[in-house]
Amino acid sequence: MVVFIFCTLLYTQTIAQPNTPKAPLSHTNKRVLYGTASFYADKFNGRQTANGEIFRQDKLTCACNVLPFGTWIRVSNVHNGKSVVVKVNDRLHPKMRRIVDLTKASAMLLGYKSLGIVRVKVEVLGKTRPVQ
Predict the structure, then answer these.
(1) What is the pLDDT of residue 11?
(2) Which domains does the chain have, with CATH numbers?
């Protein structure tokens, strides 16, 4: 019964609106994720990241398991609206449920360094460094 209803809805939506205009590609390709962010412990400073760069707490970089290396993202603190643009250059532990792990510099700009973790919105900006 559930399958029948789902198929009927799917069929109705595709047949009933065959000529509806589509949004421009720039708007449909924007990927937005929500989740929890943390920041790196000091013990990782100076170590090699998963993409081969040397990790530094004063850079605006992050670890993320769902986005490719070199992707620029805007991370926004949901609670205070502050945001920062960072580059993905590392991976989290596979069992980690957080969406990003930021440097302390990024955490300070987002205003959550004293909290340790925070709820964030992540907007994918692309592979080229955005103009700020």
Answers:
(1) 39
(2) 31-126 (2.40.40.10)
